[in-house]
Amino acid sequence: MKIYTKTGDKGTTSLIFGERVSKNDVRVDAYGTCDEANSMIGFGVSLLPEEGWAKSAAAVLQRVQTVLFHVGAELATPAGKEVTWKLREADIRFLEETIDEWQLGLKPLKQFILPGGSQSASAFHTARTIARRAERTAVGIEGVNPLVLSYLNRLSDFLFIAARYVNEQMKFKEPVLHEDHS
To answer: Which UniProt key words apply to this protein (predicted)?
Structure first.
């Protein structure tokens, strides 16, 4: 099978079920932004060590990537149609439970932290900001599944904690916001 079809050469693409839309359609923007976040999560996972805590963290993150892929599919589905796989409350609970678990070993925040630390944590911070953009875009889709909005909102919280968790596990100091910026 060829990877290129040439059907998008004039600025259109197909949603799930074949409806053609402009490549600047809000749905295309939303699911493309989810794909961007997913790729950055994968990059962050690739930078993790391959032992102990990191193996289980990678498994959690890859589960999140799978759900995020399906969120993109929901966003790529025209109004009035349904994909086979549907986002569930349990997917959001999984994020919340992982946040709670990973946050247990973290020092409480007493000041703002800056994105950074380890390379992997930095990738998760970047994925967090991309997930926020996906959420902002998805809000503009008429009839979007409300669970999609909840998932994307919780995903950015999860990725913030994932970055902090990775920095803690890898013994990287979190960069903090300094009041004196001169």
So the answer is: ATP-binding, Cobalamin biosynthesis, Nucleotide-binding, Transferase
